[in-house]
Amino acid sequence: MEPIRGEEKALVLDFLNIAEDYLRDGYRMPHPRVDIHETEDSLDTIAQEVHSCASCILASTRNNAVAGEGHPQPLVLVVGEGPGSEEDKTGRPFVGPAGQLLDRMLAAIDLSRQTNCFIANVVKCRPPNNRDPAPEEITACAPFLARQLKILRPLVILTVGRVPTQALLHTTEGIGRLRGRFFEYQGYPLFPTYHPSALLRDPSLKRPAWEDLKILRAKLDELMESQSS
Ligand code: SF4
Predict the structure, then answer these.
(1) Residue of 57, 136, 141, 144 best suited for mutating to test ligand 1, as the one with most atoms within 8 Å of CB
(2) Can you list the domains of the chain with their CATH numbers?
(3) Cα–Cα distance between 149 and 156 in angstroms, integer?
(4) Between 97-108 and 206-228, two packed helices, what is the crossing angle to 10 degrees?
């Protein structure tokens, strides 16, 4: 069989990109697709590197690094703070009580990690005693999230809680002031809301969190509509 020439290869790759979009219910990606041959990076490669990473002190106390999981072409990239105890045990993000609540919050607006969300954290290893990740730990881990974002290209980034929101927006403003509004992060709409663990501690935050989720859903519908028209 003759090898595929460059021009033909580009056509095949274009077709694959279009087919992928079609299979996603006609949804068009918000950013130009990167031809498969232009990037050798992948979610699996990132996960492998995360699992063997020792770029910050958190490597010395973790049981399992948690790279992230979810749909490889998500509508929403959920970004949390870092793994907790259950996540450190299992190597999966948001699987403890807060994770179960996050899944219910996402399901309430027709989102899930199985079908249209990817879930990651700003640090991939558990800070001991559930302390906040230190700025140098967030900085050391940032290239992994940046690479994930480049591959995933979601419609919206949803940050949950103070730490990831402040880290990505480079602000010291509290989550109470940042939540429920859209910001821009590297060309993507970024929308902060409360961390589910805050809702477990303070049920009075459930109402404003629900208001946030409705705003997020409306924005997603608007973006999907504009992509399909
Ligand atoms: Fe590496 Fe990130 Fe884990 Fe630090 S937190 S060891 S930078 S994977």
Answers:
(1) 141
(2) 1-37 (no CATH), 41-228 (3.40.470.10)
(3) 11
(4) 50
**What SS3 state is found at 189?**
strand
Element holding 116 (H helix, E strand): none
Question: What are the structure tokens assigned to 21, written together?
Answer: 């979009």
CA of 129 from ligand 1 middle (Å) equals 16
CA distance 225 to 229: 6
| Amino acid letter, residue 141 | C
Query: Amino acid identity, residue 48?
Result: Q
The C-alpha atoms of residue 198 and residue 226 are separated, in whole angstroms, by: 34
- C-beta atoms surrounding 27 within 10 Å: 18
- List all residues whose CB is within 6 A of at least one atom of ligand 1: 50, 53-56, 58-59, 65, 123-125, 137, 140-141
> For 192, phi and psi rounded to 5 degrees?
-90, 145
58: amino acid identity, one letter: L
* Beta-bridge partner residues of 156: 76
What does pLDDT average to over the chain?
88
Q: How far out from the chain centre does Cα 26 lie? A: 22
Exposure of 118 by Cβ count < 10 A (0-12 exposed, 13-18 middle, 19+ buried)?
buried
φ/ψ of 159, rounded to 5, equals -95, 135
What is the predicted pLDDT for the residue at 40?
Answer: 85
Tokens of 99: 């994770």
Extract the residue ranges of the chain whose pLDDT is less than 70.
1-39
pLDDT of residue 206: 96
